[in-house]
Every structure is written in C-alpha cells, then in structure tokens.
Design brief:
Layout: H1 7-19, H2 28-41, E1 44-49, E2 53-59, E3 62-72, H3 99-115, E4 120-128, H4 136-142, H5 145-149, E5 153-161, E6 168-169, E7 173-176, E8 178-187, E9 191-192, H6 196-199, H7 202-220, E10 227-236, E11 242-243, E12 246-255, H8 258-279, E13 282-291, E14 294-296, H9 298-312, E15 317-318, H10 330-336, E16 339-347, H11 364-382
Parallel strand pairs: 3-4, 3-5, 5-16, 6-15
Antiparallel strand pairs: 1-2, 2-4, 6-16, 7-14, 8-12, 8-13, 9-11, 10-12
Helix pairs in contact: 1-3, 2-3, 3-11, 7-8, 9-11
Bound molecules: zinc ion (ZN) (2 copies).
Length: about 375
C-alpha cells in the first residue's frame, strides 16, 4: 500500500467543510468542494446522484470487482457552542456528527487508491447526502447508484466518541438499530373541566398510553432483545379549566432485531386501540418505518476486522462489538449488496449530536488507510 495521504490538506478540507455545514439535500457547496478534490486526484467524477450526491470512480490497472466506499456529507440543525477557528459560519447548522471527518477520511482513501500502482478492479467512492433522517442512501439507490457504477460490495465507517482514537470496532450481523417514528393523535369532545364524563379526557388517556407503551420493552419483548420506545413529545391543552379536545404524542422506536421491530409495531398498534376503548377517546396512530437495522454480512465484517488489525494492530480492534441503538441509512445499501459498517474511535470528548462535539483530526489518516486497504482486500478476495 502506498504512503499516507496529504494529511495537512485533508485537515484543511475538514475545517473548511466544518465551517460551511449544510443540511440534508442542501449539501451543494460541500459536494462542489468534494468533486473538485476528487478531480484533482484523478478520479472520474459524477455529481447530482440522488440529489447532491457525488460519486468518484477509481479504476485499477485491469478489470475486476467493483467495491464501494461511502461517506455521508450532511450537517445537523444545532448551534455550535465552541469558538473554534473553523467554527460553523452558518447560524444554527453544525457538523455535530462528524460527517465532515467522514468525507475527509474517504477523500484520503481516494488519494491513496488513485496513487496505488496496481489493482485489478475499481473502487467507487460514494459521498452521500442526507444521512440524518432524510434517507439520502435511498435517494442514491433510486438514482441507480449500484447499477450505474457496478458496485458489488460496500463499506462505511462512523466515528464514535468515547472509543479510543483510531480503534476500530465491527461485528457480524446487526451493528446498528432500526428506527421508526410514532405520531399519535388522541381526540375527544373536550369541554368544561368540571364535566369529564361529557368532555372525555385526552390527557389522562395520553398519560395512560405513555405508561403502557413503556411496558413493550420492559414486559413484552424478550429481555435479551435490545430495544427502546421513547415518547419525546406530548402536547395538549391551553389553560386550567378546559379539557382539551386533542393531544398529540410523538416518539421513536428502535431495536436491533427485524423481528422485534415488527413486534413493536404490532404492540404499539394494539396499545393505541385498547387505550382508545378503555378511555372512550379516539386514538389515531401513524407508525412510520424509517431506517431498517444495519446488518453486516459476516464475511465482509470479518474482512473489515482483519484489515483493521493490519492497519491499527489487533489489540486495537474489537471484531465482535455490541450493536448500538443509533440508526444509519447505510442499512439500505446492505439490504441490496453485501458489505459492512464499522466504528472508529473519536477519542474522549463530547458525544455526537452535541453542541460541543468535534471530529478528531488525528484519525483522518488511520481512517483513510483502513478504507483504502479494505477496498483493495475486498477486490483481491472477490477476484
Ligand atoms: Zn448523526
Ligand atoms: Zn452520523
């Protein structure tokens, strides 16, 4: 493998993108900067894939398998708190999940692969829009990503604060949770607070519903299954002497098992219906299935772990890490082709989606090296 990429340039790229964060499907400047960077490296660049997505193709010296490597590009609607020299210049928008760093690592891998002297196949670097809840992966898939570029296998990586910087963790099977949205509207006639028997009570019904939903994970699912149901919003009423006619509850359900995901949806539906009956109110549920579980193909996960051990040393690799209840639209790629998604430690510091968070520049090099080596190993193994 070739030497490390130009880390000073990658760091400068990362800081530039961090200073100019863009929300889902609005990553226009980010995409332009990435496309220019890739062209400079000698990759064949296609823009506008699935909206703002950018794809770079790096061809080996002869024909062979085509491996995809993916980074996400979008930022979050968060106000950055720390006065960094490269702090966000876009008010209320922040790279608080490290996607700026993911792009830097993938550009570093692209640089190493463009400089690689000989390999029999192709590497497609995929810069995806809108990971944060808007399913940019689906937009790219719907735009023909896999067929247009011939991608047979795909890998991705996410930084994790709290894991030592540069350590790598992966597992065969479910690495990340499914995530679904619950949106519940409770309705009753409403009326004077002195006459609940005429008005109905959406607040008491809603309170019972919140409590009953907590029994899904605590009492109904197999305790060995990791899952969470959280009600995050409960809005009802305007004053002290009126029973309101509506209450709205919103929340999320996540789990590390496709079967449990179906069970949770069924139980939420049943509990809404039984609460309506018990309280004499109407309960309307919208249960929206968002991202599926991110399930690593075992052979690809083993390959990622083996390459990680080569790059950072076996003592810094967890080849059977726990899955976590975060979700990723990388899951949609893995529903169509084999691949794996890995974690890379970001070191100490604030968690992702926190206003104090920052990506750790010290892991750009190791992340780049890992991704480039993984693509070449996958090419060699599939040949
Ligand atoms: Zn995120
Ligand atoms: Zn993220």
């Amino acid at each position: 493998m070739t030497s490390l990429p130009d880390l000073d340039r990658l760091r400068a790229f990362r800081h530039d993108v961090h200073a100019h964060p863009e929300l889902a499907f609005a990553e226009h400047r980010t995409a332009d900067v990435i496309a220019d960077y890739l062209r400079g490296l000698g990759a064949e660049v296609t823009t506008g894939v699935g909206g703002t997505g950018v794809v770079g193709v790096i061809r080996g010296t002869s024909a062979g398998p085509t491996i995809g490597l993916r980074a996400d590009m979008d930022a979050l609607p968060i106000v950055e708190r720390q006065p960094r020299p490269y702090a966000s210049t876009s008010s209320g928008v922040m790279h608080a999940c490290g996607h700026d760093g993911h792009c830097a690592m993938l550009l570093g891998a692209a640089e190493m692969l463009c400089a690689a002297t000989e390999f029999a196949g192709n590497v497609v670097v995929v810069f995806q829009p809108a990971e944060e809840g808007a399913a940019g992966a689906v937009a790219m898939l719907d735009d023909g990503l896999l067929a247009r570029f011939g991608i047979e296998e795909i890998y991705g990586i996410h930084n994790i604060p709290g894991i030592d910087a540069g350590d790598i963790a992966v597992r065969a099977g479910t690495q990340l949770a499914s995530f679904d949205d619950l949106d519940i509207t409770i309705t009753a006639p409403g009326g004077h607070a002195m006459a609940p028997h005429l008005a109905g009570d959406v607040i008491v019904a809603g309170s019972a519903l919140v409590t009953a939903l907590q029994t899904i994970v605590a009492r109904r699912l197999d305790p060995a299954v990791r899952a969470v149901v959280s009600i995050t919003q409960f809005v009802a009423g305007d004053t002290n002497n009126v029973l309101p006619p509506t209450a709205r509850l919103r929340g999320t359900a996540r789990c590390l098992s496709a079967d449990a995901r179906d069970e949770i949806q069924r139980m939420v539906t049943d509990i809404c219906a039984s609460t309506a009956t018990a309280h004499g109110v109407d309960v309307a549920l919208t249960y929206e299935r968002r991202y599926p579980c991110t399930v690593n193909e075992p052979g690809c996960a083993a390959r990622a772990a083996a390459v990680a051990a080569d790059v950072v040393g076996a003592d810094r690799v967890d080849a059977n890490c726990d899955g976590i209840l975060a979700a990723e639209d990388f899951a949609f790629f893995l529903q169509q082709i084999p691949g794996a998604y890995a974690f890379i430690g970001n070191g100490a510091g604030a968690p992702v989606h926190n206003p104090d968070y920052d990506f750790n520049d010290d892991i750009i090099g190791v992340g780049a090296k890992f991704l480039a080596a993984l693509a070449l190993r996958a090419i060699a193994d599939r040949a």
